[in-house]
Amino acid sequence: MTATIEIGFIGLGTMGTPMALNLLKAGTPLVVWNRSKHRSDNLAAAGARVVDHPIDVFARCRTVILMLADEQAMDAVLARGGHDFAARVCGKAIVSMGTMSPDYSRCLSDDIHAVGGVYVEAPVSGSRKPAEAGQLVAMLAGDADDVVAVRPLLAPMCRQVFECGAIPAALRMKLAVNVCLITLVTGLAEATHFAKSHNLDLTQFAAILDEGPMASDVSRIKISKLVCGDFTRQAAITDVLKNSRLVMEAARDAATSLPLMQASLALYAETEALGLGDDDMIAVIRAIEERTAGSHGKSS
Ligand SMILES: NC(=O)c1ccc[n+]([C@@H]2O[C@H](COP(=O)([O-])OP(=O)(O)OC[C@H]3O[C@@H](n4cnc5c(N)ncnc54)[C@H](OP(=O)(O)O)[C@@H]3O)[C@@H](O)[C@H]2O)c1
């Protein structure tokens, strides 16, 4: 894998666009495709070759990075289950960086290997801002040689890469990280709701959290968004709801109880039902506010 060989990149959403831009900035020649064509404009301006169909990416590139929303998007792009699947993936290395279910990933890996392709899981921790800064943390899983071959490609997007073992170990690790992230941000939203309902000085509340022992990159970004009511998306409610469901499915498979995730899942579902699916995950505060309003209604 050298810098003169074109690399494919499919999925130019909130995460994929800054990730692909960082690859280009580092001199990686990219061939890109996105379902909604206008989202390729920034990449074209930065020097990527934009093609009209995913098949053109697979035809040109031996390595194709996918940063797609979910399993349906993956299957659509790979033409999985159709005649074109083998033609797209045979002899190719498919690197999936989105968050999918570990079971799905294991089956996909089997299917790709069965037709002579290579598959590497490379989910990432970090949302839009770390993606823009090339500061994601990647988790890799796959056959050892494939992981070694793919690892250098990720350097412009990531500050650290961890090798987790065989598929689906990277996705299992990613879900464990998500338990921490989702419950942390839900907790910040609930704490902000508490502070608001006691008419506390929210600027001071944020400053105390930022200076205190629990502060982290995530808490600083999210508390500032919560205090200003800036719901611009870094990680969408719909995506966090999807990820919460993936965590709960995996927990059920392992007969594991996750009470905080259970509560979070319900709140993200309620937030989406309020029509806030495209907003940032901090919009979960709206579902918490609704519950407060509902409990006042009951007591009056
Ligand atoms: N945002 C985060 O903080 C974050 C962090 C770590 C991991 N992740 C994971 O990374 C993945 C991408 O996240 P994101 O925030 O970038 O999501 P996003 O902004 O919603 O982008 C999703 C991408 O998938 C494409 N897509 C969706 N359905 C498709 C289909 N049926 N066929 C072809 N393409 C399809 C979208 O194309 P269109 O542009 O046409 O819609 C878009 O390029 C997800 O698995 C997410 O869980 C997200």
UniProtKB/TrEMBL annotation:
Its EC number is 1.1.-.-. One of its GO terms (molecular function) is oxidoreductase activity. PROSITE patterns: 3_HYDROXYISOBUT_DH (PS00895). Keywords: NAD, Oxidoreductase. It is an enzyme of class 1 (oxidoreductase). Residues 172-287 form the 3-hydroxyisobutyrate dehydrogenase-like NAD-binding domain. Residues 6-165 form the 6-phosphogluconate dehydrogenase NADP-binding domain. It comes from the Bacteria. It holds the Pfam family NAD_binding_11. This is NAD(P)-dependent oxidoreductase. The lineage of its organism: Bacteria, Pseudomonadati, Pseudomonadota, Alphaproteobacteria, Hyphomicrobiales.
